[in-house]
Sequence to fold (531 residues):
Amino acid sequence: MRGAVYSRQIMDKIFFSLVCFFSCLSVLPLILILGYLLVKGLSALNWRFFVRLPQPLGEAGGGIANALGGSLLLLGTAFALAVPLGLLVGIYLSENRKSRLAGYARLSVEILQGIPSIVIGMVIYSWLVLPLKSFSALAGGAALGLMMLPVIVRAAEETLKLIPSALKEASLALGVPYYRTILRVITPAGLSGIVTGILLALARVAGETAPLLFTAFGNPFWSFHLGRPVESLPHLIFYYATSPYEEWHRLAWGASFVLVAGVLFLNVSAKLLTRRWRVQF
Amino acid sequence: MAILSIQNLCVSFQENMAVKNVSMDITEKKVTAIMGPSGCGKTTVLRSINRLHELSAHARVAGRVILRGEDLYALDAMLVRRRIGMVFQRPNPFPTMSIYDNVAAGYLLNGLRLDRRELDALVESSLRAAALWDEVKDSLRKRGTFLSGGQQQRLCIARALALRPEIMLLDEPTSALDPKAAASIEELIVRLKDSVTILLVTHNIAQASRVSDFTAFMYLGELVEFGLSAKMFTAPGDKRTEEYLTGKFG
Fold:
């Protein structure tokens, strides 16, 4: 009898240690990746790295300004396309939970989330690149926007669902029209959740390479033109890392570091924001 | 003189008839209480006056509600709601807005333009009318949700008063409050009737007898009895009213 209790206690200890061990292990990859990037990438970072264009082969001191600018342009375009659309769909879904259209829309958005990014790139290629006869920032932004859409829709729907209906009634009882109630009472009350969702969506697509390969394409020069190809951080990393040149590898590591730092920043901001902006009902 | 006349009002939700052929005239600048056990349809009557019942897709209404000679169901719902103020069971100030903006919400959200001085005066007079001015006059820029429950409810009353409603609908306004805060709201109701007509829904018999001039007793969707409170609470005309008042059910 005592033996059985004793062995159970031993099992308990072993089980608990295992759980702890693997929890620690799960933190390790991130720390290793960050550490490795820091070691490899930090040496590439200096002022010129951020403000100069890539130099011709054999010349030292090139920068990634074109990719930084391009990534910002692509994310900006994706933001402008996905946020209004995603927000409106999210509002519809939270307001009309049981309608048939809501069921279909929710399902489509879920499936859209699972579509491989390379396929999204290909579809945008045939929808935008071929008709416009040029790789473009617009096409790249559209591809990224399409990938952001499901995340924003879900975030908006889930956040707005939690807002008490008493708030809506309070506004309607003042004679405020439905659309103003939604835009000026309900949406502001859910703003922290919605903005968090948008930041996470941006963080998610900032590192996407596949959908940009044949939409934004890449560009060794400065470009802020929506109708022209642009460089982007992930594409620059892909291009430089697969090249045989030592100098380009260094730039790729630096760019990786910058990209991860950006994504990390977005993630941490999202976390802080949820805490700080929480609306008390 | 009757300001609001409810005529043969029936409300149903799918199969379920929640309000059955209710008719009553609400007297101007008096407090009229609608009491009855939960589920008797009293809140449904209230919500079909400012047409909030339209929020539930299954609600069907028959009958008429006449405000100063105008059929409310023939008017635009938004305009009806601007003329009729409502206060809910749970205080529901707008959480993203300051105290000031909460009171001015009827104007801000509706896009009705007022100049700064007019709006300031309106906010002050509404808060004074709701007996909240002295407590919040130094913190008008703070969020409304920082106030206590009773203060929040008075803020909601001020918000409704700011639109200068012709009639105020109060839906169990004290049921979520502690006794002290509830007493201050009751006091406020009695004071307000000098300037506005009040229709109060309550399941609290004592409250109805304390604050109301007229009382309606509803049971199972029907209006059982309606008349002067002084008479109903001393000599009820219907056996069901008497049983309810003496605590036999409800």
Summary: Chain B has a mean pLDDT of 93. Chain B touches chain A through 29 residues (CB under 8 Å).
